Amino acid sequence: MICPPGELWARTGKRLHGSLLSWLEARLHHLVLAQLRASTFDAESLAVRLDSLDEGIEDLFKRVERLESGLACPPFSPNMTVVRALAAHPGVLRLFKKRQLPSCQICPVAFDETLEEVAKAHGFSLREFMHELNNLDNIPI
Q: What are the pLDDT digits (tens) for 53-62?
């Protein structure tokens, strides 16, 4: 089960993107200051360095895309907490609503309660519940 790209970006990409931009801004600032301190403000060499930096940026974004496409959601297990399950796949909330559990995301015990405990407390077959969770992309909800 692969996380939808939008969900994955929401979880990791924004942080990575922000960190990457901060690093690039600092690197660019460093290059310009180095040129100014050396009193050899050579527009051509600065342009070459900026082109090199631009190529590096493109390469980093390609690497991020490759990482995103290869990251899979963790398989759901009985000992997984409700919060972790909700964060793993957007379809979990739809399944919980289908199973008459619409407030799990705001439940105060969601951080500690496991999927096994949810199934037991609400009279679900754990095996069936796990099957539905691990096949969210294949089972219509």
A: 777 777 777 7
* Amino acid (one-letter) located at 83: V
The beta-carbon contacts of 122-130 under 8 Å, at least 24 apart in sequence, are 124/99, 126/78, 129/99, 130/76, 130/77, 130/78
Question: Where are the strands (E) in the chain, listed by range?
Answer: none
Q: How far apart are CA 129 and CA 131, in angstroms?
A: 5
Taking the model in full, what pTM does it have? 0.48
Note the residue count of the chain: 141
Q: In this structure, how many other beta carbons lie within 10 angstroms of the beta carbon of residue 52?
A: 11
Q: What is the pLDDT of residue 86?
A: 86
Contact yes or no for 112/84 (Cβ under 8 A):
no
